[in-house]
Automatic annotation (TrEMBL):
<dbReference type="InterPro" id="IPR016024">
    <property type="entry name" value="ARM-type_fold"/>
</dbReference>
<feature type="compositionally biased region" description="Gly residues">
    <location>
        <begin position="69"/>
        <end position="84"/>
    </location>
</feature>
<dbReference type="GO" id="GO:0045892">
    <property type="term" value="P:negative regulation of DNA-templated transcription"/>
</dbReference>
<feature type="region of interest" description="Disordered">
    <location>
        <begin position="1"/>
        <end position="84"/>
    </location>
</feature>
<feature type="compositionally biased region" description="Polar residues">
    <location>
        <begin position="40"/>
        <end position="49"/>
    </location>
</feature>
<comment type="similarity">
    <text>Belongs to the PDCD4 family.</text>
</comment>
<feature type="domain" description="MI">
    <location>
        <begin position="127"/>
        <end position="248"/>
    </location>
</feature>
<feature type="compositionally biased region" description="Basic and acidic residues">
    <location>
        <begin position="16"/>
        <end position="26"/>
    </location>
</feature>
<dbReference type="Pfam" id="PF02847">
    <property type="entry name" value="MA3"/>
</dbReference>
<keyword id="KW-0539">Nucleus</keyword>
<dbReference type="InterPro" id="IPR039778">
    <property type="entry name" value="PDCD4"/>
</dbReference>
<dbReference type="GO" id="GO:0005634">
    <property type="term" value="C:nucleus"/>
</dbReference>
<dbReference type="GO" id="GO:0005829">
    <property type="term" value="C:cytosol"/>
</dbReference>
<dbReference type="InterPro" id="IPR003891">
    <property type="entry name" value="Initiation_fac_eIF4g_MI"/>
</dbReference>
<keyword id="KW-0963">Cytoplasm</keyword>
<protein>
    <recommendedName>
        <fullName>Programmed cell death protein 4</fullName>
    </recommendedName>
</protein>
<feature type="domain" description="MI">
    <location>
        <begin position="290"/>
        <end position="413"/>
    </location>
</feature>
Amino acid sequence: MATAEIDAIENELDEKDPVVNEEKSSGDVLTKRKPKKVSRQNSKENVAVTNFVHGPRSWKNSRRSRNGFGRGLPKKGGAGGKGVWGLPGSELLEAYEDMNDPNYDSESMTNGDIELKAVIPDTQDEELRKKMDPIILEYFENGDTHEAELSVGDTVPKNRRDLFVQTAIEIAMDHKSSHKEMTSVLISDLFGHVITEVDIAKAFESLLANLPDLIIDIPDAPTVLGNFVARAIADDCIPPKFIQTAKGKCETAVCLEALDRAHTLLSMKHGLVRLHNVWGIGGALRPVKYLTRQMTLLLQEYMSSFDIEEASRCLRALEVPHFHHELVYEAIVMALEANNATKEEAICKLLKAFDEAVLVTRDQMERGFLRVFDDLNDISMDVPLAYIILDRFVERCHKEGFISENVQRRMPSRGRKRFVSEGDQHFIRNQNVL
């Protein structure tokens, strides 16, 4: 559209407007800013003037100003406008203080008394115990104090290490003597590394205060705790004066009983040396003669009472699963010496019960039988009918199903000459007469 045509249309609109006409008739001078006109060109004029065609999509996406002003850049470098974050990097140049913040304190923000520290939230005792129990039980399995030290350092806060000592002793109270010995060793090894004298003393004080509750589940808790206190003093983990200090805080009779037990152990001649074996020598550390004697007494007690459960309990208490073949050996020799069908049946029943309870493994069972086979020549000197009795006993055990055919096939047999020379001629005479 031409410029002349646009001017003619605007004049016609002004004449039709009553407000404009009234102002003109009144003779008032109007200061009206004439809008700047933008010349627009159609596609044909663009082609004629510039020889370049601007497509509708390229004009739509163009960043040029539509009114002819500016270059299309953001205001204030991106810092202007409502609801924006401001110029990038401006948060580093000035400190932000919200006056409307309810925690805002103008004085404390400027006087320099603010000190920032890392706050570690307090963990409940029950949550800590759930984390400490696996550490202690795993230590009972592998006996590695270094691994336990790393686990305690990573899991238990420094201000709650006394709870770890307390939990370890409580768990050991309900376990075997070997575990109590391992717990005393653990406390001694961790002392000076991840636990301190204050932690150990505080743990014992808590245990002494909780003795009335512990004695319900563990009747000998005062004696056991007294042993732990005496052993800790012998290992130089706590001073000897701890006993006198703790007695002043005792409020129950069981607490005094535990401390008196510790004082008695320390007062013995060479007490500090003897306390290293306060829990006894357990497991494989015991001499072979001692273990053999205990197994013989176990079998003798069984032959008088025929109590399989008591025999099983005594065998577990020895804690020597690798030495159970000695029990099988002694049991078979006892059956050979008895030469009694009733006792043979009782011993066979005992070995079968041990096999079914997996108290004696098949490997240990076979090893015990093979040891008897190897020593049968020497045994037969004291028991002339050893070959016959053993053959009968092995057949009985094979029928019960706890020894294999391989063991039965390896059963030794003696020659005819030795059989006659051992005073069994009457068996041959009776056969000849028949």
